[in-house]
Write a structure and sequence with these properties.
The chain is of the alpha+beta class and 624 residues long. It has four domains: 14-119, 2-Layer Sandwich (Phosphorylase Kinase, domain 1), CATH 3.30.200.20; 122-198 and 220-296, Transferase(Phosphotransferase), domain 1 (Orthogonal Bundle), CATH 1.10.510.10; 306-381 and 391-433, Phosphorylase Kinase, domain 1 (2-Layer Sandwich); 439-486 and 496-619, Orthogonal Bundle (Transferase(Phosphotransferase), domain 1). 32% of the residues lie in helices and 18% in strands.
Amino acid sequence: MMMDIDEDSYALDPPPYVPVEHIWNDSEFWKRYSFVGRIDTGPFAGCTAVVKKGNPGKKYALQIDSKIDRFGFNADSRQCLRLFRKCVVLNRILPKHKNINAMDHMVFSQTSLFMLQDMCEGFLEITHFYPQATDLSARALFIQLADAVQFMHDYGVVHGNLISKNILFYMKPFTDPVYCKITGFDLAVHYHYLANKFKRNFHEADYLYDHHLSHHSQMPYTKAGDVRDLGKILYQMLVNNADPDNIPASGPDFKPWVRDAAMHLLRMIGPRGFGPHKDEDLLEIDGVLRHPWLKLLPPNPGLANVKELERLMVKYHSDWSVIERILVNPRIPFKYMRAEVDLRLWYVNKRTTWLGNRNLDLVENRDHPERVCEIRILRRVSPAGSSSRAKPVNALALYNELMVNLKILPPHPSIVDLEDVFINKDFIMILRRCEDYSTLEDFIKFATEDRARRCFRQLVHAIRHMHSYGVVHMGLHCDNIVFSEDDSDLDWRRDWRRPKLINITEAFWIPGLATNTIPNFDPASLVTPEQILMANQAYCTAEKDIRDLGRILFSILYGKWLDMDQIRGMPLTAEQLRPGRFSDNALDLLRWIGPYPFGPQDFVPLMTIDELCAHPWVMEDLPV
Protein backbone atom coordinates (compact mmCIF):
# COMPACT_ATOMS: atom_id res chain seq x y z
CA MET A 1 0.00 0.00 0.00
CA MET A 2 1.37 3.41 -0.99
CA MET A 3 1.80 5.82 1.89
CA ASP A 4 1.86 9.60 1.87
CA ILE A 5 5.02 10.88 3.52
CA ASP A 6 5.19 14.36 4.99
CA GLU A 7 7.66 16.52 3.08
CA ASP A 8 9.73 17.70 6.03
CA SER A 9 12.65 15.48 7.01
CA TYR A 10 14.67 15.37 10.22
CA ALA A 11 18.10 13.89 10.64
CA LEU A 12 17.49 12.35 14.07
CA ASP A 13 13.94 12.56 15.31
CA PRO A 14 10.76 14.38 14.26
CA PRO A 15 9.87 17.30 16.53
CA PRO A 16 6.75 16.88 18.65
CA TYR A 17 3.48 18.43 17.48
CA VAL A 18 2.80 19.50 21.10
CA PRO A 19 5.24 21.69 23.07
CA VAL A 20 6.92 19.74 25.88
CA GLU A 21 8.47 21.25 29.00
CA HIS A 22 10.73 19.46 31.49
CA ILE A 23 10.85 20.36 35.19
CA TRP A 24 12.55 18.78 38.21
CA ASN A 25 9.84 18.82 40.87
CA ASP A 26 6.04 18.97 40.70
CA SER A 27 6.14 22.17 42.75
CA GLU A 28 7.71 23.97 39.82
CA PHE A 29 4.54 23.39 37.81
CA TRP A 30 2.41 25.26 40.34
CA LYS A 31 4.78 28.18 40.19
CA ARG A 32 3.72 28.61 36.55
CA TYR A 33 0.00 27.71 36.76
CA SER A 34 -2.83 28.73 39.10
CA PHE A 35 -5.57 26.43 40.35
CA VAL A 36 -9.13 27.46 39.29
CA GLY A 37 -11.24 24.50 40.40
CA ARG A 38 -12.25 20.88 39.87
CA ILE A 39 -14.20 19.85 36.75
CA ASP A 40 -17.05 17.52 37.70
CA THR A 41 -18.92 17.01 34.40
CA GLY A 42 -18.27 16.71 30.70
CA PRO A 43 -15.37 15.17 28.82
CA PHE A 44 -12.88 16.74 31.25
CA ALA A 45 -14.58 15.34 34.37
CA GLY A 46 -11.99 14.50 37.00
CA CYS A 47 -9.54 17.04 35.60
CA THR A 48 -8.48 20.32 37.16
CA ALA A 49 -9.11 23.74 35.63
CA VAL A 50 -5.97 25.88 35.62
CA VAL A 51 -4.72 29.09 34.02
CA LYS A 52 -1.20 30.11 33.16
CA LYS A 53 -0.05 32.87 35.45
CA GLY A 54 1.34 34.87 32.57
CA ASN A 55 -1.86 34.47 30.52
CA PRO A 56 -4.88 34.13 32.82
CA GLY A 57 -7.40 34.66 30.02
CA LYS A 58 -7.28 31.07 28.77
CA LYS A 59 -8.33 28.07 30.85
CA TYR A 60 -6.83 24.62 30.52
CA ALA A 61 -8.09 21.21 31.59
CA LEU A 62 -5.20 19.61 33.50
CA GLN A 63 -4.80 15.86 33.78
CA ILE A 64 -2.06 14.65 36.09
CA ASP A 65 -0.67 11.14 35.73
CA SER A 66 1.93 9.94 38.21
CA LYS A 67 4.48 7.19 37.92
CA ILE A 68 4.06 6.63 41.68
CA ASP A 69 0.73 5.58 43.22
CA ARG A 70 -0.56 6.89 46.55
CA PHE A 71 1.24 4.11 48.44
CA GLY A 72 4.63 5.03 46.97
CA PHE A 73 4.80 2.14 44.51
CA ASN A 74 5.13 2.28 40.77
CA ALA A 75 1.78 2.74 38.98
CA ASP A 76 0.16 -0.18 37.15
CA SER A 77 2.22 -1.07 34.06
CA ARG A 78 -0.85 -1.31 31.82
CA GLN A 79 -1.92 2.17 32.82
CA CYS A 80 1.56 3.47 32.13
CA LEU A 81 1.60 1.79 28.70
CA ARG A 82 -1.78 3.27 27.83
CA LEU A 83 -0.64 6.70 28.96
CA PHE A 84 2.55 6.40 26.93
CA ARG A 85 0.57 5.37 23.83
CA LYS A 86 -1.67 8.39 24.29
CA CYS A 87 1.36 10.66 24.41
CA VAL A 88 2.81 9.08 21.27
CA VAL A 89 -0.50 9.40 19.39
CA LEU A 90 -1.08 13.03 20.31
CA ASN A 91 2.51 14.18 20.33
CA ARG A 92 4.22 12.25 17.52
CA ILE A 93 1.64 10.77 15.16
CA LEU A 94 -1.41 13.01 14.76
CA PRO A 95 -0.80 16.49 13.35
CA LYS A 96 -3.15 19.26 14.38
CA HIS A 97 -6.70 19.20 13.04
CA LYS A 98 -9.33 21.88 13.53
CA ASN A 99 -11.91 19.36 14.81
CA ILE A 100 -9.59 17.49 17.19
CA ASN A 101 -8.97 18.93 20.64
CA ALA A 102 -5.55 17.42 21.10
CA MET A 103 -2.99 18.28 23.76
CA ASP A 104 -2.11 21.94 24.09
CA HIS A 105 1.20 21.19 25.78
CA MET A 106 2.81 18.74 28.20
CA VAL A 107 5.01 19.16 31.25
CA PHE A 108 7.18 16.32 32.59
CA SER A 109 8.69 16.09 36.07
CA GLN A 110 10.64 13.29 37.75
CA THR A 111 7.45 11.63 38.99
CA SER A 112 4.50 13.10 37.04
CA LEU A 113 3.15 13.99 33.64
CA PHE A 114 1.00 17.14 33.37
CA MET A 115 -1.18 17.15 30.22
CA LEU A 116 -3.03 20.37 29.40
CA GLN A 117 -5.89 20.73 26.94
CA ASP A 118 -7.92 23.75 25.87
CA MET A 119 -11.13 23.68 27.93
CA CYS A 120 -13.08 24.93 24.87
CA GLU A 121 -15.02 27.52 26.82
CA GLY A 122 -18.39 28.15 25.23
CA PHE A 123 -18.54 24.60 23.86
CA LEU A 124 -21.15 22.13 25.10
CA GLU A 125 -21.45 18.37 25.00
CA ILE A 126 -23.08 17.19 21.81
CA THR A 127 -26.04 15.89 23.84
CA HIS A 128 -27.19 19.53 23.98
CA PHE A 129 -27.11 19.65 20.18
CA TYR A 130 -29.36 16.65 19.51
CA PRO A 131 -32.72 18.32 20.43
CA GLN A 132 -32.02 21.42 18.31
CA ALA A 133 -30.54 19.62 15.29
CA THR A 134 -31.91 20.44 11.83
CA ASP A 135 -31.11 18.75 8.56
CA LEU A 136 -28.63 21.48 7.67
CA SER A 137 -26.88 21.75 11.05
CA ALA A 138 -26.79 17.94 11.47
CA ARG A 139 -25.10 17.56 8.10
CA ALA A 140 -22.61 20.35 8.88
CA LEU A 141 -21.61 18.82 12.22
CA PHE A 142 -21.53 15.23 10.96
CA ILE A 143 -19.28 16.16 8.03
CA GLN A 144 -16.76 17.63 10.49
CA LEU A 145 -16.85 14.50 12.65
CA ALA A 146 -16.44 12.16 9.67
CA ASP A 147 -13.60 14.27 8.26
CA ALA A 148 -11.77 14.18 11.61
CA VAL A 149 -12.22 10.40 11.87
CA GLN A 150 -10.90 9.94 8.32
CA PHE A 151 -7.89 12.12 9.26
CA MET A 152 -7.15 9.87 12.28
CA HIS A 153 -7.58 6.68 10.26
CA ASP A 154 -5.22 7.96 7.56
CA TYR A 155 -2.49 8.12 10.21
CA GLY A 156 -3.44 4.67 11.55
CA VAL A 157 -5.10 6.01 14.72
CA VAL A 158 -8.34 4.52 16.02
CA HIS A 159 -10.12 6.68 18.60
CA GLY A 160 -11.99 3.80 20.25
CA ASN A 161 -14.29 5.96 22.37
CA LEU A 162 -16.38 8.24 20.12
CA ILE A 163 -19.23 8.72 22.56
CA SER A 164 -21.33 11.82 23.10
CA LYS A 165 -19.43 13.12 26.12
CA ASN A 166 -16.20 13.15 24.09
CA ILE A 167 -17.63 15.46 21.40
CA LEU A 168 -18.08 19.18 22.02
CA PHE A 169 -19.99 21.59 19.81
CA TYR A 170 -20.37 25.32 19.47
CA MET A 171 -23.05 27.19 17.52
CA LYS A 172 -23.46 30.95 17.64
CA PRO A 173 -27.14 31.70 16.93
CA PHE A 174 -28.09 33.15 13.54
CA THR A 175 -24.50 33.64 12.35
CA ASP A 176 -21.86 30.94 12.32
CA PRO A 177 -22.61 27.33 11.40
CA VAL A 178 -22.11 24.57 13.93
CA TYR A 179 -18.54 23.71 14.94
CA CYS A 180 -17.25 20.70 16.90
CA LYS A 181 -14.16 19.18 18.50
CA ILE A 182 -13.35 15.57 19.38
CA THR A 183 -11.72 14.92 22.76
CA GLY A 184 -11.17 11.86 24.96
CA PHE A 185 -8.13 10.14 23.45
CA ASP A 186 -7.49 8.00 26.56
CA LEU A 187 -8.25 4.78 24.65
CA ALA A 188 -6.79 5.82 21.28
CA VAL A 189 -4.33 3.37 19.72
CA HIS A 190 -2.10 3.40 16.67
CA TYR A 191 -2.08 0.52 14.18
CA HIS A 192 0.97 0.99 11.98
CA TYR A 193 -0.31 -1.57 9.45
CA LEU A 194 -3.50 0.50 8.83
CA ALA A 195 -1.79 3.86 8.22
CA ASN A 196 -1.47 5.34 4.74
CA LYS A 197 0.14 8.55 6.03
CA PHE A 198 3.04 8.90 8.42
CA LYS A 199 5.65 11.37 9.53
CA ARG A 200 9.03 10.95 7.89
CA ASN A 201 11.57 9.39 10.28
CA PHE A 202 8.81 8.35 12.66
CA HIS A 203 9.11 4.63 13.45
CA GLU A 204 6.80 3.19 16.03
CA ALA A 205 9.36 0.59 17.02
CA ASP A 206 11.51 3.44 18.36
CA TYR A 207 8.82 4.14 20.96
CA LEU A 208 7.24 0.76 21.72
CA TYR A 209 8.62 -2.76 22.05
CA ASP A 210 7.67 -5.43 19.52
CA HIS A 211 5.34 -7.23 21.93
CA HIS A 212 3.52 -3.92 22.52
CA LEU A 213 2.90 -3.66 18.77
CA SER A 214 1.43 -7.14 18.39
CA HIS A 215 -2.27 -7.71 17.73
CA HIS A 216 -2.62 -9.52 21.07
CA SER A 217 -1.47 -6.61 23.21
CA GLN A 218 -3.41 -3.96 21.29
CA MET A 219 -6.87 -2.95 22.53
CA PRO A 220 -9.69 -4.45 20.44
CA TYR A 221 -10.57 -1.18 18.71
CA THR A 222 -11.06 -1.01 14.94
CA LYS A 223 -11.81 1.51 12.21
CA ALA A 224 -15.23 -0.09 11.86
CA GLY A 225 -15.81 0.56 15.56
CA ASP A 226 -15.25 4.28 15.02
CA VAL A 227 -17.68 4.22 12.08
CA ARG A 228 -20.25 2.40 14.23
CA ASP A 229 -19.85 5.10 16.89
CA LEU A 230 -20.45 7.74 14.21
CA GLY A 231 -23.62 5.84 13.29
CA LYS A 232 -24.81 6.04 16.89
CA ILE A 233 -24.17 9.78 16.93
CA LEU A 234 -26.10 10.15 13.66
CA TYR A 235 -28.97 8.11 15.13
CA GLN A 236 -29.18 10.48 18.09
CA MET A 237 -29.24 13.48 15.75
CA LEU A 238 -32.17 12.09 13.74
CA VAL A 239 -34.32 10.56 16.49
CA ASN A 240 -36.23 12.16 19.36
CA ASN A 241 -35.07 11.00 22.81
CA ALA A 242 -32.73 8.48 21.21
CA ASP A 243 -30.89 5.67 22.96
CA PRO A 244 -28.72 3.93 20.35
CA ASP A 245 -28.22 0.93 22.64
CA ASN A 246 -31.93 0.39 23.20
CA ILE A 247 -33.94 0.81 19.97
CA PRO A 248 -37.68 0.35 20.67
CA ALA A 249 -39.47 -2.57 19.03
CA SER A 250 -42.03 -0.14 17.57
CA GLY A 251 -39.26 1.71 15.75
CA PRO A 252 -37.52 5.05 16.38
CA ASP A 253 -39.40 8.34 16.61
CA PHE A 254 -37.70 10.21 13.79
CA LYS A 255 -37.74 13.98 13.66
CA PRO A 256 -40.07 15.46 11.01
CA TRP A 257 -37.24 16.94 8.93
CA VAL A 258 -35.39 13.62 8.44
CA ARG A 259 -34.93 12.89 4.74
CA ASP A 260 -34.61 9.69 2.77
CA ALA A 261 -30.90 10.36 2.16
CA ALA A 262 -30.20 10.65 5.90
CA MET A 263 -32.17 7.44 6.55
CA HIS A 264 -30.17 5.68 3.85
CA LEU A 265 -26.86 6.62 5.49
CA LEU A 266 -28.19 5.59 8.91
CA ARG A 267 -29.08 2.13 7.59
CA MET A 268 -25.49 1.75 6.35
CA ILE A 269 -23.68 2.78 9.56
CA GLY A 270 -26.32 2.94 12.30
CA PRO A 271 -26.44 1.03 15.59
CA ARG A 272 -27.30 -2.66 15.58
CA GLY A 273 -31.03 -3.14 15.28
CA PHE A 274 -31.20 -0.42 12.67
CA GLY A 275 -27.89 -0.52 10.79
CA PRO A 276 -25.80 -3.55 9.72
CA HIS A 277 -25.39 -6.27 12.34
CA LYS A 278 -21.80 -7.12 11.34
CA ASP A 279 -19.04 -4.55 11.48
CA GLU A 280 -17.60 -5.77 8.18
CA ASP A 281 -20.86 -4.69 6.46
CA LEU A 282 -20.44 -1.07 7.56
CA LEU A 283 -19.37 1.63 5.13
CA GLU A 284 -15.75 2.64 5.39
CA ILE A 285 -15.15 6.23 6.41
CA ASP A 286 -14.34 7.25 2.81
CA GLY A 287 -17.74 5.94 1.71
CA VAL A 288 -19.42 7.84 4.54
CA LEU A 289 -17.92 11.13 3.35
CA ARG A 290 -19.01 10.40 -0.24
CA HIS A 291 -22.60 9.70 0.77
CA PRO A 292 -25.18 11.89 -1.02
CA TRP A 293 -26.61 13.24 2.25
CA LEU A 294 -23.26 14.91 2.93
CA LYS A 295 -22.15 15.52 -0.63
CA LEU A 296 -24.10 18.68 -1.37
CA LEU A 297 -23.29 20.68 1.73
CA PRO A 298 -21.56 23.75 0.26
CA PRO A 299 -19.32 26.25 2.03
CA ASN A 300 -20.59 29.74 2.69
CA PRO A 301 -22.00 31.83 1.01
CA GLY A 302 -23.98 28.98 -0.63
CA LEU A 303 -25.29 28.09 2.82
CA ALA A 304 -28.17 30.55 2.46
CA ASN A 305 -29.26 28.88 -0.79
CA VAL A 306 -29.28 25.46 0.84
CA LYS A 307 -31.34 26.72 3.79
CA GLU A 308 -33.91 28.27 1.45
CA LEU A 309 -34.12 25.11 -0.69
CA GLU A 310 -34.68 22.95 2.39
CA ARG A 311 -37.41 25.26 3.67
CA LEU A 312 -39.24 25.34 0.33
CA MET A 313 -38.92 21.58 -0.29
CA VAL A 314 -40.69 20.90 3.01
CA LYS A 315 -43.61 23.06 1.80
CA TYR A 316 -43.53 21.58 -1.71
CA HIS A 317 -44.53 18.10 -0.54
CA SER A 318 -47.89 19.44 0.65
CA ASP A 319 -48.35 22.22 -1.93
CA TRP A 320 -47.05 21.61 -5.44
CA SER A 321 -47.57 25.22 -6.49
CA VAL A 322 -44.51 26.07 -4.33
CA ILE A 323 -42.40 24.69 -7.19
CA GLU A 324 -42.75 28.10 -8.83
CA ARG A 325 -40.75 29.60 -5.95
CA ILE A 326 -38.03 26.93 -6.24
CA LEU A 327 -37.58 26.78 -10.02
CA VAL A 328 -37.37 30.53 -10.48
CA ASN A 329 -37.27 31.87 -14.07
CA PRO A 330 -37.77 28.54 -15.89
CA ARG A 331 -37.37 28.40 -19.67
CA ILE A 332 -41.14 27.89 -19.97
CA PRO A 333 -43.05 30.03 -17.47
CA PHE A 334 -45.45 28.24 -15.14
CA LYS A 335 -49.17 28.96 -15.39
CA TYR A 336 -51.33 28.67 -12.30
CA MET A 337 -54.59 26.73 -12.70
CA ARG A 338 -57.44 26.80 -10.15
CA ALA A 339 -59.07 23.57 -11.39
CA GLU A 340 -58.48 20.99 -14.13
CA VAL A 341 -61.44 22.26 -16.14
CA ASP A 342 -59.61 25.58 -16.57
CA LEU A 343 -57.46 23.90 -19.21
CA ARG A 344 -60.17 24.84 -21.74
CA LEU A 345 -59.05 28.47 -21.44
CA TRP A 346 -55.89 27.52 -23.37
CA TYR A 347 -56.59 24.13 -24.99
CA VAL A 348 -59.65 22.49 -26.57
CA ASN A 349 -60.81 19.27 -28.23
CA LYS A 350 -59.43 16.90 -25.63
CA ARG A 351 -59.41 13.34 -26.91
CA THR A 352 -57.71 9.99 -26.47
CA THR A 353 -55.84 8.31 -29.29
CA TRP A 354 -53.38 5.52 -29.96
CA LEU A 355 -50.08 6.51 -31.52
CA GLY A 356 -47.27 4.04 -31.99
CA ASN A 357 -47.25 1.90 -28.86
CA ARG A 358 -48.79 4.54 -26.60
CA ASN A 359 -52.27 5.55 -25.55
CA LEU A 360 -52.20 9.35 -25.42
CA ASP A 361 -54.48 12.16 -24.24
CA LEU A 362 -54.30 14.94 -26.83
CA VAL A 363 -55.49 18.54 -26.89
CA GLU A 364 -55.30 21.39 -29.43
CA ASN A 365 -54.05 24.88 -28.72
CA ARG A 366 -57.07 27.22 -28.79
CA ASP A 367 -55.25 29.93 -30.78
CA HIS A 368 -53.18 27.58 -32.95
CA PRO A 369 -55.18 24.41 -33.73
CA GLU A 370 -52.25 22.93 -35.66
CA ARG A 371 -50.35 22.61 -32.35
CA VAL A 372 -51.50 19.27 -31.04
CA CYS A 373 -50.10 18.44 -27.61
CA GLU A 374 -49.93 15.38 -25.42
CA ILE A 375 -51.17 16.08 -21.89
CA ARG A 376 -50.00 14.42 -18.67
CA ILE A 377 -51.89 15.12 -15.47
CA LEU A 378 -49.88 14.29 -12.34
CA ARG A 379 -51.70 14.31 -9.01
CA ARG A 380 -50.34 14.74 -5.49
CA VAL A 381 -53.16 12.60 -4.03
CA SER A 382 -55.65 10.27 -5.70
CA PRO A 383 -59.12 11.80 -6.00
CA ALA A 384 -61.94 9.77 -4.48
CA GLY A 385 -63.23 7.09 -6.83
CA SER A 386 -60.44 7.65 -9.35
CA SER A 387 -59.28 5.05 -11.82
CA SER A 388 -55.87 3.37 -11.70
CA ARG A 389 -54.57 5.99 -14.15
CA ALA A 390 -55.02 8.68 -11.52
CA LYS A 391 -52.58 7.29 -8.97
CA PRO A 392 -50.45 9.89 -7.16
CA VAL A 393 -46.88 10.30 -8.36
CA ASN A 394 -43.62 10.61 -6.50
CA ALA A 395 -43.25 14.31 -5.69
CA LEU A 396 -39.45 14.22 -5.77
CA ALA A 397 -39.38 12.43 -9.15
CA LEU A 398 -41.73 15.06 -10.57
CA TYR A 399 -39.58 17.87 -9.20
CA ASN A 400 -36.49 16.23 -10.71
CA GLU A 401 -38.18 15.95 -14.13
CA LEU A 402 -39.20 19.61 -14.18
CA MET A 403 -35.82 20.78 -12.91
CA VAL A 404 -34.00 18.90 -15.69
CA ASN A 405 -36.36 20.08 -18.43
CA LEU A 406 -36.88 23.69 -17.34
CA LYS A 407 -33.67 24.72 -15.56
CA ILE A 408 -30.82 22.64 -17.00
CA LEU A 409 -31.42 21.45 -20.57
CA PRO A 410 -31.67 24.04 -23.36
CA PRO A 411 -33.71 23.10 -26.49
CA HIS A 412 -32.28 20.70 -29.07
CA PRO A 413 -33.69 19.68 -32.50
CA SER A 414 -33.73 15.99 -31.52
CA ILE A 415 -35.44 16.47 -28.15
CA VAL A 416 -39.18 17.15 -27.96
CA ASP A 417 -39.57 20.21 -25.77
CA LEU A 418 -42.36 20.99 -23.33
CA GLU A 419 -45.10 23.34 -24.52
CA ASP A 420 -46.76 24.37 -21.25
CA VAL A 421 -46.69 23.56 -17.54
CA PHE A 422 -49.75 24.26 -15.37
CA ILE A 423 -49.41 24.12 -11.59
CA ASN A 424 -51.85 23.73 -8.74
CA LYS A 425 -51.62 22.82 -5.08
CA ASP A 426 -52.71 19.23 -5.79
CA PHE A 427 -51.79 18.57 -9.44
CA ILE A 428 -49.44 19.56 -12.25
CA MET A 429 -50.23 19.36 -15.97
CA ILE A 430 -47.36 18.92 -18.44
CA LEU A 431 -47.99 19.43 -22.16
CA ARG A 432 -45.54 18.65 -24.94
CA ARG A 433 -45.91 18.86 -28.71
CA CYS A 434 -47.23 15.62 -30.15
CA GLU A 435 -45.01 14.98 -33.16
CA ASP A 436 -45.24 11.20 -33.08
CA TYR A 437 -45.62 9.49 -36.42
CA SER A 438 -43.73 6.32 -35.64
CA THR A 439 -41.28 4.88 -33.15
CA LEU A 440 -37.75 3.59 -33.47
CA GLU A 441 -39.13 0.05 -33.49
CA ASP A 442 -41.03 0.85 -36.72
CA PHE A 443 -37.95 2.47 -38.24
CA ILE A 444 -35.75 -0.57 -37.63
CA LYS A 445 -37.79 -2.66 -40.06
CA PHE A 446 -37.07 -0.28 -42.97
CA ALA A 447 -33.55 0.87 -42.05
CA THR A 448 -30.94 1.00 -44.79
CA GLU A 449 -27.37 1.83 -43.84
CA ASP A 450 -27.63 5.49 -44.85
CA ARG A 451 -30.90 5.96 -42.96
CA ALA A 452 -29.55 4.08 -39.98
CA ARG A 453 -26.39 6.18 -39.85
CA ARG A 454 -28.36 9.44 -40.14
CA CYS A 455 -30.74 8.39 -37.36
CA PHE A 456 -27.98 7.08 -35.09
CA ARG A 457 -25.82 10.18 -35.60
CA GLN A 458 -28.69 12.46 -34.57
CA LEU A 459 -29.37 10.37 -31.45
CA VAL A 460 -25.68 10.38 -30.50
CA HIS A 461 -25.48 14.16 -30.84
CA ALA A 462 -28.64 14.58 -28.77
CA ILE A 463 -27.13 12.50 -25.98
CA ARG A 464 -23.86 14.43 -26.20
CA HIS A 465 -25.90 17.62 -25.85
CA MET A 466 -27.51 16.25 -22.66
CA HIS A 467 -24.22 15.03 -21.20
CA SER A 468 -22.57 18.40 -21.86
CA TYR A 469 -25.11 19.92 -19.45
CA GLY A 470 -24.61 17.15 -16.88
CA VAL A 471 -27.81 15.22 -17.68
CA VAL A 472 -28.00 11.45 -18.22
CA HIS A 473 -31.13 10.28 -20.08
CA MET A 474 -31.47 6.81 -18.47
CA GLY A 475 -34.45 5.83 -20.67
CA LEU A 476 -33.20 5.24 -24.23
CA HIS A 477 -35.84 2.73 -25.28
CA CYS A 478 -37.46 2.26 -28.68
CA ASP A 479 -40.78 3.64 -27.38
CA ASN A 480 -39.06 6.86 -26.25
CA ILE A 481 -37.64 7.66 -29.70
CA VAL A 482 -40.10 8.88 -32.32
CA PHE A 483 -39.94 10.31 -35.83
CA SER A 484 -41.66 13.44 -37.02
CA GLU A 485 -42.21 15.25 -40.30
CA ASP A 486 -39.79 18.10 -40.67
CA ASP A 487 -41.55 19.28 -43.84
CA SER A 488 -45.14 18.66 -44.85
CA ASP A 489 -44.22 17.61 -48.40
CA LEU A 490 -42.00 14.72 -47.22
CA ASP A 491 -43.17 11.15 -47.06
CA TRP A 492 -42.17 10.20 -43.53
CA ARG A 493 -42.16 6.45 -44.28
CA ARG A 494 -39.71 7.05 -47.09
CA ASP A 495 -37.49 9.73 -45.60
CA TRP A 496 -37.44 9.20 -41.79
CA ARG A 497 -35.92 12.64 -41.43
CA ARG A 498 -35.52 13.34 -37.72
CA PRO A 499 -35.63 11.05 -34.66
CA LYS A 500 -36.65 12.80 -31.44
CA LEU A 501 -36.29 11.89 -27.78
CA ILE A 502 -39.48 12.09 -25.75
CA ASN A 503 -40.43 11.37 -22.14
CA ILE A 504 -37.32 12.68 -20.44
CA THR A 505 -38.78 11.58 -17.12
CA GLU A 506 -36.01 9.31 -15.83
CA ALA A 507 -33.12 11.70 -16.50
CA PHE A 508 -30.80 12.89 -13.73
CA TRP A 509 -28.29 15.66 -13.32
CA ILE A 510 -25.08 14.25 -11.87
CA PRO A 511 -22.19 16.31 -10.43
CA GLY A 512 -18.96 16.50 -12.40
CA LEU A 513 -20.35 15.56 -15.84
CA ALA A 514 -21.31 18.98 -17.22
CA THR A 515 -19.01 21.01 -19.47
CA ASN A 516 -21.66 23.68 -20.18
CA THR A 517 -24.32 25.36 -18.10
CA ILE A 518 -27.21 27.70 -18.71
CA PRO A 519 -27.53 30.98 -16.78
CA ASN A 520 -29.09 30.93 -13.31
CA PHE A 521 -28.50 27.22 -12.69
CA ASP A 522 -27.10 26.89 -9.16
CA PRO A 523 -26.97 23.28 -7.91
CA ALA A 524 -26.85 24.43 -4.28
CA SER A 525 -30.24 26.11 -4.63
CA LEU A 526 -31.89 23.46 -6.84
CA VAL A 527 -30.44 19.96 -6.37
CA THR A 528 -31.39 18.11 -3.17
CA PRO A 529 -29.37 15.29 -1.58
CA GLU A 530 -32.32 12.94 -2.24
CA GLN A 531 -31.98 13.51 -5.98
CA ILE A 532 -28.30 12.56 -5.85
CA LEU A 533 -29.26 9.50 -3.81
CA MET A 534 -31.93 8.54 -6.39
CA ALA A 535 -29.33 8.85 -9.15
CA ASN A 536 -26.83 6.69 -7.24
CA GLN A 537 -29.42 4.01 -6.52
CA ALA A 538 -30.34 3.94 -10.23
CA TYR A 539 -26.63 3.53 -11.13
CA CYS A 540 -26.90 6.73 -13.13
CA THR A 541 -23.77 7.22 -15.23
CA ALA A 542 -22.98 8.54 -18.69
CA GLU A 543 -21.91 5.01 -19.61
CA LYS A 544 -25.52 3.82 -19.12
CA ASP A 545 -26.64 6.00 -22.05
CA ILE A 546 -23.76 4.75 -24.23
CA ARG A 547 -24.70 1.12 -23.50
CA ASP A 548 -28.30 1.94 -24.45
CA LEU A 549 -27.04 3.46 -27.70
CA GLY A 550 -25.17 0.21 -28.27
CA ARG A 551 -28.40 -1.72 -27.84
CA ILE A 552 -30.10 0.60 -30.35
CA LEU A 553 -27.26 0.02 -32.83
CA PHE A 554 -27.55 -3.74 -32.40
CA SER A 555 -31.32 -3.61 -33.01
CA ILE A 556 -30.80 -1.58 -36.19
CA LEU A 557 -28.24 -4.06 -37.51
CA TYR A 558 -30.37 -7.05 -36.54
CA GLY A 559 -33.65 -5.59 -37.83
CA LYS A 560 -35.70 -6.11 -34.66
CA TRP A 561 -35.90 -4.68 -31.16
CA LEU A 562 -34.95 -7.35 -28.61
CA ASP A 563 -34.80 -7.56 -24.83
CA MET A 564 -31.34 -7.90 -23.30
CA ASP A 565 -32.00 -11.52 -22.27
CA GLN A 566 -32.85 -12.38 -25.88
CA ILE A 567 -29.66 -10.72 -27.11
CA ARG A 568 -27.44 -12.56 -24.63
CA GLY A 569 -28.86 -15.92 -25.71
CA MET A 570 -28.37 -15.44 -29.46
CA PRO A 571 -26.04 -17.93 -31.19
CA LEU A 572 -25.09 -15.42 -33.93
CA THR A 573 -21.88 -13.51 -34.45
CA ALA A 574 -21.72 -9.83 -35.43
CA GLU A 575 -20.98 -10.77 -39.06
CA GLN A 576 -24.22 -12.81 -39.24
CA LEU A 577 -26.44 -9.79 -38.50
CA ARG A 578 -28.12 -9.22 -41.87
CA PRO A 579 -24.84 -9.94 -43.78
CA GLY A 580 -23.95 -7.57 -46.60
CA ARG A 581 -26.43 -4.90 -45.53
CA PHE A 582 -24.08 -2.87 -43.29
CA SER A 583 -20.43 -1.92 -43.65
CA ASP A 584 -17.47 -3.09 -41.59
CA ASN A 585 -17.40 0.28 -39.81
CA ALA A 586 -20.87 -0.35 -38.42
CA LEU A 587 -19.81 -3.77 -37.12
CA ASP A 588 -16.65 -2.23 -35.65
CA LEU A 589 -18.70 0.29 -33.69
CA LEU A 590 -20.91 -2.53 -32.42
CA ARG A 591 -17.83 -4.25 -31.00
CA TRP A 592 -17.03 -1.07 -29.03
CA ILE A 593 -20.46 -0.25 -27.56
CA GLY A 594 -22.82 -3.14 -28.38
CA PRO A 595 -24.45 -5.41 -25.80
CA TYR A 596 -22.54 -8.51 -24.74
CA PRO A 597 -21.65 -10.91 -26.45
CA PHE A 598 -21.52 -8.59 -29.50
CA GLY A 599 -19.77 -5.85 -27.53
CA PRO A 600 -17.86 -5.43 -24.26
CA GLN A 601 -18.92 -7.24 -21.11
CA ASP A 602 -20.75 -5.39 -18.37
CA PHE A 603 -18.59 -3.06 -16.26
CA VAL A 604 -15.89 -2.95 -18.94
CA PRO A 605 -15.17 0.73 -19.71
CA LEU A 606 -16.70 1.95 -22.98
CA MET A 607 -15.70 4.77 -25.29
CA THR A 608 -16.84 8.24 -24.25
CA ILE A 609 -19.63 10.11 -26.01
CA ASP A 610 -17.06 12.33 -27.77
CA GLU A 611 -15.15 9.28 -29.01
CA LEU A 612 -18.44 7.81 -30.19
CA CYS A 613 -19.22 10.97 -32.18
CA ALA A 614 -15.77 10.71 -33.80
CA HIS A 615 -16.13 7.06 -34.87
CA PRO A 616 -15.72 6.60 -38.67
CA TRP A 617 -19.21 5.11 -39.14
CA VAL A 618 -20.84 8.06 -37.35
CA MET A 619 -18.62 10.64 -39.09
CA GLU A 620 -18.96 9.17 -42.61
CA ASP A 621 -20.55 11.52 -45.14
CA LEU A 622 -24.18 10.88 -46.01
CA PRO A 623 -25.58 11.07 -49.56
CA VAL A 624 -27.56 14.19 -50.35
